[in-house]
## 1
Amino acid sequence: MNKLYEIIKFPEFGDNRGSLTTIEFNSGILPFKTQRIYYIHNTRVGVSRGFHAHKKLQQVIIAVSGSFELHLLGRNSKEILYLSDPSEGILISSFIWREMHNLSDDCVILVLASEPYTESDYIREFSEYLEHLEARTC
Ligand code: T46
């Protein structure tokens, strides 16, 4: 069974003031050179996001505030992850279908991406995603 994700634990420095988490781009902790950072915030209550896969893009997804469920689907497996730890990133490779559900009202999702934004890298139709998986087994 293919693994759908990996967990990356970032260094966290806590003291009596609170916590500070670092992501050093040149430390080797990330398996790609980060080309883009974006964050998802102010999501309306009850709204889900994602519903796509990428052809080339790899990314690391972090709940830097609040929590959400990350639903992942691959060739033979699916996973539901609960993200709420700002010092933990979920590494997702290409051709993994992802959905984000149950975002808390304080949820901020930070994403580190391996590629610049290109709409042609997205597979937004689930039927098309299944066709891609099928073609990749041939
Ligand atoms: C992903 C999940 C976790 C841009 O113009 N530039 C960008 O870098 C991004 C990420 C998006 N956009 C535009 C494209 C859409 O018009 O912003 C709009 C919202 O994007 P989207 O509907 O794709 O947002 P999500 O939350 O469904 O998905 C996003 C990422 O697009 C995607 O790569 O894996 O977060």
Note: The two ends are 17 Å apart (CA to CA).
## 2
Amino acid sequence: MKTHFFNMLLATFTIATSILSLQAKEPKKEPKAVLLPAATDTQPTFGIGKRTFLMNGKPFLIKAAELHYTRIPQPYWEHRIQMCKALGMNTICIYVFWNIHEQEEGKFDFTGQNDVAAFCRLAQQHGMYVIVRPGPYVCAEWEMGGLPWWLLKKRDMALRTLHPYFMERVGKFMAEVGKQLAPLQLSRGGNIIMVQVENEYGAYATDKEYIAAIRDLVRKSGFTDVPLFQCDWSSNFDKNGLDDLLWTINFGTGANIERQFSKLKSIRPDTPLMCSEFWSGWFDHWGREHETRSAENMVNGIREMLNNNISFSLYMTHGGTTFGHWGGANNPAYSAMCSSYDYDAPISEAGWTTPKYHLLRNLLKNHLQEGEKLPEIPAPLPLIEIPEIKFTEAAPLFQNLPFPHIASQIAPMENFNQGWGNILYRTTLTSNIAQGTFLKITEIHDWAQVFADGKLLGRLDRRRGEFTLKLPKLKAGTCLDILVEAMGRVNFGKSIHDRKGITEKVELFKDNQTTELQNWQVYNFPVTHEFAQNKLYRQINTITTPSYYKTTFYLETTGDTFLDLSSWGKGMVWVNGHALGRFWEIGPQQTLFMPGCWLKKGENEIIVLDLKGPSKTSIRGIKKPILNLMRENKPATHRKKGEDLNLEKEKTIMTGIFKPGNGWQEIKFTQAVKGRYFCIEALSAQDGKGKASIAEWDVLGKDGSPISREDWKIRYADSENIHRGNNTADKIFDLQESTYWTTEAKTKYPHHIVIDLGEENIITGFRYLPRMEKNYPGMIKEYNIYIKEKDYNY
Ligand code: GLA
């Protein structure tokens, strides 16, 4: 018996050594021998060994490419999978997006573009394994993080908790996912090797019971033959970690990789290591600079992981496009995502190779495991230009009102059984309104235009916290219209409970008197092509906004192109019935990806809904995307003109010195302090230079745990880098550890941030997270803290 056992160990050891020797030129670690399940010819196995994954009993490194089938037109799935294979990957990692499969409660759709099983089978045909992440919550910059909007019809809904209705619906969804994908597990002849339970739950709450319940539903749906895993951040993975699940860590390009895994290694020394989301780039928001990440840094990170036997999934390897209305948003501060999900990934939005692709391929070609081959890179898909398409017909929205609901009180869109699109709230003023009265709307989700008898009075934008409008003199009997466009539902943090339209009430406010407006007619404008098409279109004489515009155009050849929307205001586009996405003149995105597979030889139909109005009613198809042209003034800094924080007469609550290094530091005050305005005064940097940066900041409340940051605002920051999308001061409480505040390049210490906590709090301390990189740039050394009930002098 003993001899047999020893022989098996030896055999495994020999196999493992020969595999590792394929990984040319890299320093080799002594492979660990482990007792493995024997693989047979007929039944491949995937499992977890000691510090490694095991494929058919042999050590196996997962090199996964994250792709989203929803973000790639179905006819292009195969091309993108082949691109990933030719990059040197061996696995495709996907989310399953609940809300696209169950758009109406109880009606599931897994066909055509939604046929996730067909996507997995295609991957298998190309020799790729699949990792499935069925949520139910997925984040992914996707509307509501993948949760269906209709869950919000219940007023008491508590998403991602054991709320009975939420769990009942998750159970039904998971069962459907099981029907589609459980037969595709490796053991059953498919290619699925792992399944994820929930998604980054540590960034949302601490609730092991909930995670355990989701795990049980995943198993119950049939995923019994593959390892289940949880992904989180290095700072919070242990909060909800279940003993029987594998734990993986998410982090991005530039992160200090050793540090990312140090805690996990100390808790579970024998676990295989995997970065389940290594962020290749980042996503774009409307009104913020286009994001990029260095190719060298990304490839260096992957090299480090390969050298240390760390599996990874490159999020995104190909981001693609968030078509239609499926883009999500972040909050606080509310900020909706662009339609392009290019992500600065190795494979561009239209499926092209990039310098990142070639650099990574050069690395991965030296890390092929037994049986892996590097195919040729597939040819790019045909590209065309479309000469100017002139719009001939328009259907003004106000002349095409659908049948209204009658409501005495205002209510969000969900209450009128509408999920997405625009909603018009109309009332008639019952008395005269004096000049200077304010219209106060609680709250606008997300972008509103206010009209009096059809005349535009103003626009309000949730991104900027604009919820009041100064009214002119108006007569009783005036028809007041508030047209609200819902942009993406928040996909991260507690704000995913993001009801749309007007969430609570509309008031008139003057001389300390408020009157709530009542008796509304409510009109729904859904986002379907049928709805947009089925309007009374007339020849365009003058431009009336908002309007739907329609025309046809002829093509002799089809191919991919980018529709140039730069002369249009704000809205959505449909071509041949396919919803291409949202556009907004402010940028940075100015073009919409138009996949050639949705175009036809001969006549094509295009419809544009423009809420704000075009300067020119024509569109061209061009050969290059424009993703980085900002046409809104740079995001305002939080320091108003002429302001200079004066702390001379203020009392310091605490003076301290941070330890150098990555990771959170928690500081407790000796005595609790009461206050609303929290001022951080950074006096010096660890590297002695002029820059300061903070990735995240928490304030500890009465019970010693972090208080909610949902209502926080930055009152003041002495300096902010506004040339990049994610470096303003509000990034210290945007719940994302990988985005950060940083001061401008040539500034000097001291640096200051004042946070308005929204209300008075009992404060017992704070937590500071510096940037994730190895050399922690801009890390603060000496600091002072001030806390006051009233604001400071500037
Ligand atoms: C997290 C989420 C992903 C995605 C990325 C950022 O890691 O798990 O779904 O939102 O952040 O792109």
Note: The two ends are 81 Å apart (CA to CA).
